[in-house]
Amino acid sequence: DYLASCTQLRRLLLDDCYNLKTTFEVLKHLPHLQMLRANTNNKMLLTGSVDPINALTQIVDLQLQECRRLTGKIESAFTAAMSRSLVRLELSHTKFEGELSSLSKCESLQYLILCECSALTGELSAFKSLVDLLVLDVSGCCNISGSLDSLSDCQRLTSLNLLGCIKIEGTLDAFSYMAELELLVLDGCKGI
Predict the structure, then answer these.
(1) Distance CA 161, CA 184 (A)
(2) Distance CA 146, CA 170 (A)
(3) Rounded to whole angstroms, how far apart are CA atoms 41 and 173?
(4) What are the distances in angstroms from CA 64 to CA 39, 107, 131, 139?
(5) What average pLDDT does this structure show over 175-185?
(6) What is the band of 78 on the pLDDT scale with cuts at 50, 70, 90?
């Protein structure tokens, strides 16, 4: 792969690179990468397994929007080594599978955007340890369940979007600890 020799690369932005044909295997050769952003609008031919992400032990900002041709389970991508530094994670409109609990080790996360990731499953309690979260968007994640009360430790939240999360339950009392909350979207949360 052409990027394999760029071992000092820190930031890689691939938005709208529709003719780019590559796999994520190249990530194994980019140990210093701190930011990776690919918004493909489902047109880029970025293919293969998401697993090589676990080689990015210095990654701070990982945004894979609409990378629907990438496959894999988030459990194998987000290892403890790479999770320590991760501050922003966006996997919007992807088809990754797995349990939300595998993200609980990403304790530095401030921005977690998983909208329309319908193959992800698990409980809201998986986010309990993410006390630095400012933005949590799991809109359209219809397989997420649990109680709003499990977010009570996420007191720094400024934006919470649970649009269409039909399995989430609880009462608005859960938000009494969130003094910084500026945006709250609960449309379609039938259990609230």
Answers:
(1) 6
(2) 8
(3) 38
(4) 6, 20, 23, 16
(5) 94
(6) confident
Contacts of residue 107, defined as CB under 8 A and 6 or more positions apart, other chains included, come to 83, 84, 129, 130, 131, 132
Q: Which residues pair with 45 in a beta bridge?
A: 21
Residue 59 near residue 89, CB atoms below 8 Å:
no
Residue 16 backbone class (left: φ over 0; alpha: ψ -120 to 50; beta: rest):
left
Residue 19 CB neighbour total at 10 angstroms: 7
Q: How far apart are CA 56 and CA 29, in angstroms?
A: 9
Give residue for tokens 């369940």.
Answer: 145
Length of the chain, please? Answer: 192
pLDDT at 188: 92
pLDDT of residue 48: 72
Q: Where are the alpha helices (H) located in the chain, listed in sequence order?
A: 74-77, 80-83
**CA 156/CA 165 separation, integer angstroms:** 21
Residues in contact with 1: Cβ distance below 8 Å, sequence separation at least 6, in sequence order: 22, 23, 25, 26, 29
- Please answer whether residues 72 and 99 qualify as being in contact, where contact means their C-beta atoms are separated by less than 8 angstroms: no
Other CB atoms within 10 Å distance of the CB of residue 8: 9
> φ and ψ at 172, to 5 degrees?
-70, -10
- Joined together, the tokens standing for residue 21 give 């044909």
